[in-house]
Design goal:
Number of domains of chain A: 3
Strand content of chain B: 25-35%
Number of domains of chain B: 1
CATH class of the largest domain in chain A: Alpha Beta
Oligomer: heterodimer
Distance between the termini of chain A: 14 Å
Order of helices and strands of chain A: HHHHHHHEHEHEHEHEEHEEEHEHEEHHH
Order of helices and strands of chain B: EEEHEEEEEHHEH
Shape of chain B: globular
Radius of gyration of chain B: 13 Å
Number of helices of chain A: 17
Number of strands of chain A: 12
Largest sheet of chain B: 6 strands, antiparallel
Shape of chain A: globular
CATH architecture of the largest domain in chain A: 3-Layer(aba) Sandwich
Number of helices of chain B: 4
Strand order of the largest sheet of chain A: 1-7-6-5-4-2-3
CATH superfamily of the largest domain in chain A: Type I PLP-dependent aspartate aminotransferase-like (Major domain)
Strand order of the largest sheet of chain B: 1-2-3-9-8-5
């Protein structure tokens, strides 16, 4: 077949692999035969002659589009085969740092599929959906308790959306005090969404330096915080996998200037039930439910990014807010005159929030703390097992993830090569070159068994050995996947992203 | 890697060379090497105004997309058209054939603050 859908595959390498191992199937357009169909459509109720009268001539096609023509079974087999090519945490170890690719327990799906959650409409009367509202209310309360903050909005549809909502709340707070603060600080290693959120909210982002041990440089912070600083956006544990224990000092420096402390909750997995951001001085934070509370991850959504705020910021939360009346019934509260308004249509990504609530309730307070402890233990175990072959630029102990540097002299083997070779071990590569160049950021998550962790260690050590004894093996990896090393340079210089029919 | 001594350098790895009131700028070979294979270069139109400290274009590689910053304020008088079809020139020869823009600068003063070749070499050796 023409392998265009796979990017530009190195043809010379592909030809060395026996046909049976290539596992390349025809694209849908190359299957079937004229007249085959997987769906039976009824006759059109509009006569052809009328169509010409009612539809402007320039909108009528001369000929039918060249859609695939395949039978239902062929269609099912086609997608089933493609699904076998997927790589997921359900099948394999997936230590993608900074993104917490944790296993999504099946109970989440079972609850989310309940008709009480799937067969409802946002325009239904409150009285018809009391169960749903109650669920959202308790989720709101649980998330506030986990954060150690006063109140939570469930509306934002993603973590970055939560950042934007949080900054809008902070801006509204400063304005309510007659101040117009336009600067937002963030560490050099911040997630890319932090400066993006600042810009969207009309603020300027200023970088704060980090120290060699991965903590915030407090002197640099002090020099940069002033009465024009709206907020500091900090991820803690931070993006290098370290809990910055100066965090209470950071909060004091900020609050002395009236600056708000925003925490990016991307790494909440490491501190669930152990500490609460509200206790160490955070004013606003967002959660990524897909990272912390096992809602589906990837594919661009749908997501949820609930935002928690301290008492003084409550008036500015988006409307409506799910609320409990004195009689114990639940409703939507729109009576919040200082609210920043709506940040999303209706009430948020309910299907995702149901899964997060299920996860929280299935585990309970002790279970959530256990999640964090195991995530931290697993990461530190891996670091301790690979440290004699991979440089660890920041000193342990780590939170739930750590950074390792593949350095093998002038062999030409770095983060990319090790990552590609891990594929041959059926392990998803860790995050590469974030937050520092040429690093691997490894996050095992809490659900992996000791045996799975040891397999990863064995793979990493074997690759380190190969880097010295048989570097070509590593540099030309992967060798066992259906798609081999792709020519990324040609693929991006001369992108070829659309299937084209073979010339007949 | 030799760093030419006929121009000035920024901490963000741009170089600036003065010819009369026109300043030619590009990115350093170190930057190009760090980016690895460059796949796309986005440059402003001739006639566009640029401001010191502001991004004037973008260099994209297999690994990353990076903004390119001007050190001077002025008007773009020429851009390197060859890069549109051959971004690899930047990897091959960032200091000469891989130049990005020529800017008629309002003032050359901002260049005084930049690093010379020796200082830049020390900067990238860190």
């Amino acid at each position: 077949m023409d392998p265009v859908f796979l990017g530009n595959v190195d043809a010379s390498f592909m030809s060395q692999i026996p046909k049976t191992q290539q596992q390349d199937y025809p694209v849908l357009f190359e299957m079937g035969a004229p007249g085959l169909t997987a769906v039976a459509l009824p006759e059109s109720g509009v006569r052809a002659a009328d169509r010409r009268r009612h539809v402007p001539a320039e909108l009528l096609a001369e000929q039918l589009p060249a859609l695939p023509e395949v039978g239902e079974l062929d269609l099912v087999r086609h997608y089933k085969r493609l699904s076998h090519k997927c790589f997921s945490v359900d099948e394999n170890f997936y230590p993608l740092g900074s993104c917490t690719m944790k296993y999504n327990p099946r109970i989440n799906e079972r609850v989310a599929a309940m008709p009480e959650f799937t067969e409802v409409h946002p325009y239904q009367e409150d009285a018809d959906v009391q169960g749903l509202l109650e669920m959202l209310y308790w989720l709101r309360c649980d998330l506030a308790e986990i954060a150690g903050l006063a109140e939570v909005t469930l509306q934002p549809a993603a973590g970055a959306h939560g950042e934007m909502t949080g900054l809008m709340i902070i801006n509204a707070y400063h304005r309510s005090r007659g101040e117009n603060r336009r600067q937002v600080l963030a560490p050099e290693s911040a997630h890319g969404t932090n400066p993006a959120s600042c810009t969207i909210c009309g603020c300027t982002q200023i970088s704060v330096k980090g120290k060699p041990n991965g903590r915030v440089d407090l002197d640099d912070l002090r020099a940069k915080v002033n009465r024009d600083t709206a907020a500091l956006m900090l991820t803690n544990p931070n993006t290098v996998g370290i809990f910055d224990e100066q965090v209470a000092d950071i909060a004091r420096i900020l609050h002395a200037q009236g600056t708000q402390f925003y925490m990016d909750g991307a790494n909440m997995n490491a501190i669930l039930g152990i500490t609460q951001p509200g206790r160490f001085g955070v004013d606003v934070m967002h959660y990524n439910t897909h990272k912390t509370f096992s809602t589906p991850h990837g594919g661009g959504g749908p997501g949820a990014g609930p935002v928690a705020v301290a008492e003084h910021l409550r008036p500015f939360l988006p409307v409506p807010q799910v609320a409990r009346r004195c009689d114990g019934s639940f409703t939507w509260d729109y009576d919040r005159p200082h609210s920043i308004g709506k940040v999303r249509s209706f009430y948020g990504q309910i299907g995702v929030l149901v899964r997060a609530y299920t996860y929280i309730r299935a585990l309970g307070p002790d279970g959530l703390r256990d999640v964090a402890e195991k995530a931290v233990l697993n990461a530190n175990y891996l670091a301790a097992r690979v440290k004699h072959r991979y440089e660890l630029p920041f000193p342990p102990p780590y939170a739930h993830e750590f950074i390792a540097m593949p350095k093998f002299g002038d062999s030409g083997i770095g983060d990319l090569e090790v990552s590609k070779r891990l594929l041959d071990h059926r392990i998803h590569p860790p995050t590469m070159s974030f937050p520092i160049h040429h690093c691997l950021m490894i996050e095992p998550t809490e659900t992996e068994s000791l045996a799975a962790l040891d397999q990863f260690v064995a793979a990493m050590l074997e690759i380190a050995d190969e880097a010295e004894k048989d570097p070509e093996m590593v540099k030309t990896a992967p060798h066992t996947t259906s798609v081999k090393r792709v020519d990324e340079v040609t693929a991006s210089r001369k992108p070829n992203v659309r299937w084209k029919p073979a010339v007949r | 890697m030799s760093v030419p001594s006929d121009r000035k350098y920024t901490e963000t790895h741009e170089w600036f060379m003065v010819e009369g009131d026109v300043v030619t700028m590009g990115i350093t070979q170190y930057a190009a090497d760090e980016l690895t294979d460059i796949t796309y270069v986005d440059l402003p139109d001739v006639g566009a105004s640029v401001a010191a400290g502001e991004p004037v274009g973008e260099v994209e590689s297999v690994k990353a997309t990076s903004d390119v910053y001007s050190a001077v304020t002025g008007e773009v008088v020429e851009t390197n058209n060859e890069l549109a079809d051959h971004p690899e020139i930047l990897n091959e020869d960032a200091f000469d054939r891989g130049w990005l823009l020529r800017i008629r600068a309002d003032s050359l003063k901002p260049l005084n603050k930049l690093m010379d070749a020796r200082e830049y070499e020390a900067h990238i050796a860190l």
